[in-house]
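2 proteins. here.
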Amino acid sequence: MAEEHKHEESIMDKIAEKIHGHDNSSSSDSDDEKKASSIKTKIFRLFGREKPVHKVFGGGKPADIFLWRNKKVSGGVLGAATLSWILFELLQYNLLTLFGHVSILALAVLFLWSSATTFIHKTPPHIPEVHIPEEVVLQLASGLRIEINRGFTILRNIALGRDLKKFLMVVAGLWVLSKVGSSCNFLTLIYIATVLLFTVPVFYEKYEDKVDHFGEKAMKEIKKQYAVLDEKVLSKVMSKIPRGAFNKKKD
């Protein structure tokens, strides 16, 4: 009996060791998964983006339009922008003239159609009520307000001399904008911006891993070149700028 009892105890000890070893392996697997997830969260994203592209555009219907979630609406908006650019830029059509002619034609057709139905005893045309949804307008206004305030903050910091790197980037961007503006008018510039807004984000969302990888390499190279420029040129220029008067005013 004693030998059988010892044999049963040894079997129970082996089972306990197996269970304990399985728990350790599962805990190690969970630790590995946590490490892998932490590595994934550290992937470089362009412009320091932490949210999905859909969330960057505010989510909701505006983001669906820009990212072609609703292809009919997105195509309709882009088509209307293209038609407007052709009419006003290529055909040199005047906006007020076009609006007046289209309105006259539409009202005349609807008026004659509605009047004719009373004589021929048919149902009048169904004219839907058109209204702009409040939610869409509020989302667009909120996103625009946030971006404008962010731009004002960046410009204020640059004007106070707090960030030389951003100052050079803004100056370069404004110089490029002035060159583009001298080669095309405002309407063409707005149309180009609209086309880019409807094409670049959707392609970036589709190939974001490749673009982010290329952007990471480009940012490293830019930082390397900027460090060389800062060491050889900018630091010397900044050291020659007198700051005594500014410090006295600050005190």
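next one coming up
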Amino acid sequence: MLPSVLRCASPISTTLAFTRPLAHFRPHMAPDPNRPVEGAIRTKLTQQLEPEHLEVHNESHMHAVPPGSESHFRVLVVSPRFDGLSLLQRHRLVNETLAEELKSCVHALAIQAKTPLQWGSNPSIAKSPPCMGGSKGDHTVEEKLKAGRD
């Protein structure tokens, strides 16, 4: 378990190319070393999918988890690698890329995976609904929260 936790919290550095910033989202700066899971997600998606646009939003504050948690995320990935792939195939690519985080420290991942053409015609990100307490029945949440802190 320890090696997977360390992979989940490994230090990272990355630069991203943004094609069109959204006015209602603040631009993403260099990864925050206090947010290792978010940084790992950003790095892996950048390396594997070479996105033209990438947004990683930690939505843990919207859920019943301790302050500072990194357990619930929404990602928007716009990549030419998605051209010709079905939505299901795109989601599988994202899930495969983040398999380690999903096994160890990420409880929920909302994915928007768009081609550059789709993004060009509709440059928006969906909003997540408020927490409905779904983690109360998931006994792995406590383990994942601990893994994200270690």
